Amino acid sequence: MAGIDEPVAAVLRRRIAGCRDLIACERLSAGASQETYRIVISTDAGERKLAMRRAPGAATSRHGGYPGLATEALLMAAARRAGVPEPEILWVLRPEDGLGDGFIMDWLEGETLGARIVRDASLAAVRPKLAEQCGEILARIHAIDLDATSLRARLEQLSPEQCVRATWQRYQALDTPQPMIDFTARWLLEHLPASVEPRLVHSDFRNGNIMVSVDGIVAVLDWEIAHIGDPMRDLGWLCTNSWRFGRSELAVGGFGAYADLVCGYQRVSGKGVAAEHVRFWEIFGSFWWACSSLSMAQHYRTGPDRTVERPAIGRRSSECQVDCVNLLLPGPVALLAPDAAPASVDMPRIDEIVTSVRDYLRHDVMAATKARTQFLARVAGNALDIVLRDLAVGPEHRRRQVERLRLLLGEDGDLEALRRALVQRLREDRMALDHPGLADYLREAVVNQVAIDQPTYSGFKTALANAGIPSARGA
Question: Model's pTM, two decimal places?
Answer without folding.
Answer: 0.89
